[in-house]
Design a protein that fits this description.
With 273 residues, the protein is an all-alpha fold. It has one domain. Helices cover 75% and strands 0% of the residues. It contains twelve helices and no strands. Helix 7 packs parallel to helix 9. The protein starts with a helix and ends with a helix.
Amino acid sequence: MDYLKSIILGIIEGITEWLPISSTGHMILANEFMGITDTSFFNSQIFLYVIQLGAILAIVTLYFKKLNPFAPSKSVQEKKDTWQMWFKVIIACIPAAVFGLLLNDAMDAISTPVVVSAMLIIYGIAFIFVEKKSKTIKVESMTDMSYKTALFIGLFQVLSIIPGTSRSGSTILGGMLLGVSRELSAEFSFFLAIPIMFGVSFLKIVTNDYVLSSNEWILLVLAMVVAYVVSLIAVKMLMNYVRRHDFKIFGWYRIVLGLIVIAYFAIKTLVLA
């Protein structure tokens, strides 16, 4: 059963890390339905954050050429554009790095079903509202994006430290509000995840005193591999989708999921009372 749980959680991570639907909300429900307790290895900080490395490696794989400023096939101008893209990513990551370090423990403390449900619903409504509001697309390529716009998207990313918000959800929503196209907003969100999630995973590893057994290492690596494979598929599907559709379906999905989380835990509380 532990191997099955590891595979299921890897699948959830691979899908929900990139879609703007909150991995936290899905993990909470998955833990409940699989009987994973708060003290379980599957609910430990080391497991929940390190499996993200598998998802990140999928982004590096899919966008390696675009991310690589040393690619021999690129012209001098293309290499320069790639470096500028990385500078924009770094600038956008600074707010999340600062506030993430300051508020990390506080946010872990409020990671409750109520908070997660509220954020799922609030951001679901926000996506629907933003998509219905007429807007002008000002930025359609990375070279068109200014450093100021990148910084503001980074400020939106800070909101993702609130459980249930979704890192990809906050950055995509922020990008769209700033006039960035859906496709570029999603792509920039992927790139922002690389330093942020590598940094968070590294921080959790070096600050965690949890000693993994040989079996727990196997479970962790298995979840990472599954998250990697599923992420490859999820990212391709998301990008194909946003080229032809808007994000309203994800808004409605968040609202429904938030209501399910609230209802489930309300019923559970009444039954146990």
